[in-house]
Design brief:
The protein has 399 residues and is α+β, with helices and mostly antiparallel strands. Helix content is 43%, strand content 20%. The radius of gyration is 26 Å and the shape is globular.
C-alpha cells in the first residue's frame, strides 16, 4: 500500500532562491522538449518524438548548459520529460476517443510548481541527518533543507517531490507500507446521499451540515480580487494583492479538506460498510448547451445558464470528489469496505413499496409516495436506497 505525506519546508533565503532556480530550469527543459515535439510533428513529416529519444539527449544538454541544467539531478530531469510524455499520451488518447484534445501548452515560470525525484537517494535524500533532532531533506544543488515533520513517516520512502504553493515550499513523499491492522468490527452498515443543502445524509436519517466555505469567504475574496484587478501589472503592489488572493484560496481549500477528513473519519470509525452514489461530478457541473433561436439567426434562447452556474459553484464548494477520495483512502487503511452504486432514481424510489415515480418527490426535501403514502425526508430515502443497492451489489460480487 502506498501512502503520501506532505510536509512544510523551511528553507533559508539562499535555499529559497535555489529552489526557485530549480523550478525555472526544469520549466525550461519542459518547454524545450515540448517545442522539439511540436517542430518534429509539423515540419518533419509528422514525426513523433518519444520520451526515450529526448532522455538520450539529456547528457548532451547537461554538458552544453552545465551552469543551469548540469547542476540538477539527472533523474529529476528525466521525471520532467516523463511528465511531458504523459501529457502527450493523454492528448493523443483524447484525439482518438473524439474528445476535445487540448494540446499540452508551454508553461510559464509561475505555472510550473513541482519537481519530482523518482527514487529516494537519487538526487535527494529524505531525513538526511537522522541523528539531528531536526528533520532535514537534502536536494542536489540546494543542500539540507529543514522540514516541519508534524507526523511520523511509516514505511519505506519511494519518491520525493518539491512543490511550491504561493510563497511556501512543501516536500511530498510517497511511502510503501504493509497493510495496517483493521479497526475492530462494529457490525454497522450505512448509505450516504451527497447533497447541497446538507453535505451528506445517512441512511439512519443523520444530516451533516454543509459548511459552504467558499460562500462564507466570497465577500472577502471578491474584494481582494477587485483590488488585484486595479493594480498595475508587474508592480510590487499587484504582487502583494495576488498573494492575498492566493492566501484566501488556500484558507478555503484547507478548511474544506479539514471538514472532509473529519467527516470521513467519523464514518470509517462507526461503520464496517459504506455505500455511496457513483456521482459523475464533471457531468453534473457542466455548463448547459446554448439554444439557438430559430426565428432570429445569431440569437439564442434562455437556457438557464445563470441558475446552472450557481448550482455548479455550490457543487464545487461542497467538494464531493475530494471527500470521496479521502473516504476511500481512510477506509482502505481501516479495513472497511466502500462501494459506489448507480444513483439513478435513488431519491424517487419508495423504500416501503418500491414504487418509482418523479411525483414521489414534490419538493427538494419532501418524499411522499403516490402509491402507498409513505412520507420521509428525500435525502434520507435516497441514502436508504443507496445502502440497499450497495448491499445487493456486495452479495452478488464474486468472492
Amino acid at each position: 500500500m502506498i501512502r503520501a505525506y506532505k510536509f512544510l519546508m523551511r528553507p533559508t533565503v539562499g535555499q529559497t532562491i535555489a529552489l526557485g532556480e530549480m523550478l525555472r530550469d526544469h520549466c525550461s527543459l519542459y518547454n524545450g522538449a515540448l517545442q522539439e515535439r511540436r517542430d518534429a510533428y509539423r515540419h518533419v513529416s509528422k514525426t513523433s518524438v518519444k520520451y526515450g529519444m529526448q532522455s538520450a539527449q539529456l547528457k548532451e544538454i547537461r554538458a552544453f548548459d552545465a551552469e543551469r541544467q548540469g547542476r540538477w539531478s539527472f533523474s529529476s530531469q528525466q521525471a520532467t520529460l516523463r511528465r511531458l510524455d504523459r501529457a502527450m499520451q493523454a492528448f493523443f488518447r483524447r484525439v482518438k476517443s473524439g474528445d476535445t484534445p487540448g494540446h499540452p501548452r508551454f508553461r510559464g515560470v509561475n505555472w510550473f510548481d513541482t519537481v519530482d525525484f523518482p527514487k529516494d537517494g537519487d538526487g535527494c535524500r529524505w531525513d538526511s541527518t537522522p541523528h539531528d533532532p531536526v528533520t532535514r531533506v537534502r536536494f542536489q544543488g540546494i543542500g539540507h533543507v529543514r522540514v516541519n515533520r508534524h507526523r511520523q513517516v511509516v514505511g519505506k520512502v519511494k519518491t520525493v517531490s518539491v512543490k511550491r504553493e504561493g510563497k511556501r515550499w512543501y516536500v511530498v513523499l510517497t511511502a510503501e507500507q504493509v497493510l495496517p491492522h483493521p479497526l475492530p468490527a462494529t457490525g454497522s452498515v450505512v448509505g450516504i446521499d451527497m447533497g447541497i443543502v446538507s453535505f451528506l445524509t445517512t441512511s439512519g436519517g443523520e444530516h451533516v451540515a454543509n459548511p459552504r466555505h467558499g460562500r462564507a469567504a466570497a465577500a472577502k475574496l471578491e474584494a481582494s480580487q477587485q483590488a488585484l484587478s486595479r493594480c498595475k501589472r508587474r508592480s510590487n503592489r499587484r504582487q502583494k494583492a495576488a498573494d492575498k488572493v492566493a492566501a484566501l484560496h488556500r484558507t478555503i481549500r484547507r478548511r474544506r479538506l479539514d471538514h472532509a477528513h473529519k467527516t470521513a473519519l467519523g464514518l470509517v470509525r462507526e461503520h464496517d460498510f459504506i455505500a455511496h452514489e457513483d456521482l459523475k461530478i464533471r457531468n453534473m457541473s457542466a455548463a448547459p448547451a446554448p439554444k439557438p433561436d430559430p426565428g432570429r439567426p445569431g440569437a439564442f434562447l434562455s437556457n438557464g445558464a445563470a441558475a446552472k452556474a450557481a448550482l455548479n459553484r455550490s457543487i464545487a464548494d461542497a467538494g464531493w470528489g475530494v471527500f470521496l477520495t479521502i473516504l476511500n483512502a481512510k477506509a482502505e487503511s481501516a479495513g472497511r469496505e466502500v462501494m459506489a452504486v448507480d444513483p439513478r432514481n435513488t431519491s424517487r424510489r419508495c423504500p416501503e413499496c418500491g414504487h418509482t415515480a418523479k411525483e414521489n418527490r414534490p419538493t427538494q426535501e419532501t418524499f411522499r409516495c403516490v402509491s402507498c403514502g409513505h412520507q420521509a425526508h428525500a435525502d434520507a430515502v435516497g441514502a436508504l436506497n443507496v445502502l440497499r443497492a450497495g448491499l445487493v451489489r456486495r452479495e452478488t460480487q464474486p468472492a
